[in-house]
Each structure stands twice: as C-alpha cells, then as structure tokens.
What we know:
With 315 residues, the protein is an all-alpha fold.
Amino acid sequence: xxxxxxxxxxxxxxxxxxxxxxxxxxxxxxxxxxxxxxxxxxxxxxxxxxxxxxxxxxxxxxxxxxxxxxxxxxxxxxxxxxxxxxxxxxxxxxxxxxxxxxxxxxxxxxxxxxxxxxxxxxxxxxxxxxxxxxxxxxxxxxxxxxxxxxxxxxxxxxxxxxxxxxxxxxxxxxxxxxxxxxxxxxxxxxxxxxxxxxxxxxxxxxxxxxxxxxxxxxxxxxxxxxxxxxxxxxxxxxxxxxxxxxxxxxxxxxxxxxxxxxxxxxxxxxxxxxxxxxxxxxxxxxxxxxxxxxxxxxxxxxxxxxxxxxxxxxx
Length: 315
C-alpha cells in the first residue's frame, strides 16, 4: 500500500510538471486569453508543486525513514511553502499585490511559522503552552487567510470585467480556501488530541486534503489554459502592426468610440501582453490598465480578451 501511495505521488508530481510546461510554451496565448502575467502563474504553480513534493517527503519519512529531525525540518518547510503559496496567490489577485492585506498575510504567516516551530519541539514542561500557541496561531492565520481570499474573490467578481481572467483567479481562490478549511480542522484535531489525549491519534481524513487541492487545481489550470490557447489561436490578429490592418479596424475604433489610449491597450492585448506588462509598456499603473480594459469591454459589449479580438477580426 505504501508503494502504491509513492507511485501516486510521483504520478501527480508529473502532472504538475506538465501543467507548468504548458505555461512555458504557450506564454502569448495565455496572456491573450486571461490577461495575467505568465511569470506570476508559473511562480504559483512552482510553489504548488514544491508544496506537494514536501507532503510526499513527509509521507516517505513517516513510513520509511522514521527520523524525528527530518520530520521537524519537513514540517517547517511545509509551513513556509504554504505561506509563500498564499502570498503568490494574492499576487495573482492583482488588486492586492501591494495592499495592506498582502502585508497582513505576510506578518501573520511569519507568526504562524514561528508558533508551529516551537510547538513541534517535544518538551513536556511547555507542551500545553506551545500547543495552545500553535492552536491560536492556526485559527488566526487560516481564518484571516480564508477571509482575505474570499474578499479577493468578491473584488474580482465586482471590479473585473474580463470574464476569463476573473473565473481563473476566483477558481484558484475558492479551491485554496476549501483546502485551508480542511487543514484547520486537521491541525485542531492534532493539537487538541496532543493536549488532552497525549498520544498519537488517528489521522482524521481518509484522503489527504493536499491530494484533492493539487489534482483539482492542476486539472482546472490545464483545462482553462487549453480553452484559452484554442481560442487565442483562432484569432488572426497577432501583432501590434497588423491590428491596424484588420478588416474594418478603423471603423471599429470609430464605431465604438475607442480612445487613442484604449487603442494602444487593445494593440498590446492582441500582441499577447498581460495587464502588468501593458502597464510597463505604457508607463501606467496596472489599475489604470484594468480600468481601460473594463471601459473597452463595456463599449464593445464583450466579457473577455478573446471576445474582444474576435469582434475586431469580424468587424
């Protein structure tokens, strides 16, 4: 049974590598379809793979190595990678990249890591105090993280007109929120059992929550990217130069009252630039870029980048 679990871990790690490779080889198509910076997606997926591998090493150590020192290091790496992964997910929620919420998540994440490091030091004299500290930090960190991700999903829904990018980020927010809730239950079960029973207790889940998170997020990303790539490659407008040569291009701009700045934004969208890259090209903030794109979508009556480019092509 243990060898079967190891095979599953290795297979799922390969699934993550395939997902990551898709973002490497289809960069322009991804930017055109969902408007996110591909490097941000790659960082998040890379941490997700690392997080999963750490879980595999924890499992391997528990059944084959049985080293308490190794276990201590691996669980510390687990906590660190979880915090970094949540911060990278907030980066994908672009509106919170430099916000106070991002800083709060970072500070609470650091406190969470420190409390769990001390909690795992097996000393009888401070067992109760360290367990309570870990319990409190767990509740505070995960509860606030869930609140921040829920708020991020709400903001994406209300403020973003780009349907494709919005669904992509909200989907990741929801899946990660569910995993954090499962992790909180697991940690509370472990901590309370440690305090009141003071012995090794049975694992509360029949299936590892990280399995569910990892599989669903990878499949979600693969399906979403494949749809975006297919849609992107059906559009003939591929460069800044031939956007202006598209059939009816000038009439399109006049018909919908597209401003000069909005025209520049459309040209960069067609060339496959993400929102943040468009901001760098035009020397404007990403919030201004999103405001221009939302304005364009409303004028043209579309809900995604691909719909916009199709409408230009068909004009």
